[in-house]
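// run 5 | inverse folding | seed 20
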């Protein structure tokens, strides 16, 4: 079965950095565009960034542009989200998502303190 396992979340001070990872299994990872989403308490889940299957194309939410970088390593079946200059409003559960097949990971908590 398809499994997406996120890691790398945690508690960080404003201005700090975190790198999230999502390891995928049960899919042909190299042909799947991938995305990172987040959901803050009381808010809807929102798109953060997406990356094409080979990594040549990326798109970001306005809130992530200039601070976050999505990347992937198809040899490791892993997609990453490097988050810099974190703000308290980035606090959320971050989810990995397969664009094809609509699979989700269990999420990883990111908390940014002011």
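// decoded
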């Amino acid at each position: 079965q398809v499994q997406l396992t996120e890691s790398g979340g945690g508690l960080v001070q404003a201005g700090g950095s975190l790198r999230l990872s999502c390891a995928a299994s049960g899919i042909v990872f190299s042909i799947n565009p991938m995305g990172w989403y987040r959901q803050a308490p009381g808010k809807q889940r929102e798109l953060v960034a997406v990356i094409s299957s080979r990594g040549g194309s990326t798109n970001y939410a306005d809130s992530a542009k200039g601070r976050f970088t999505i990347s992937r390593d198809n040899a490791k079946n892993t997609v990453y989200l490097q988050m810099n200059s974190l703000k308290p409003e980035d606090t959320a559960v971050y989810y990995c998502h397969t664009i094809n097949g609509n699979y989700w990971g269990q999420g990883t908590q990111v908390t940014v303190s002011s």
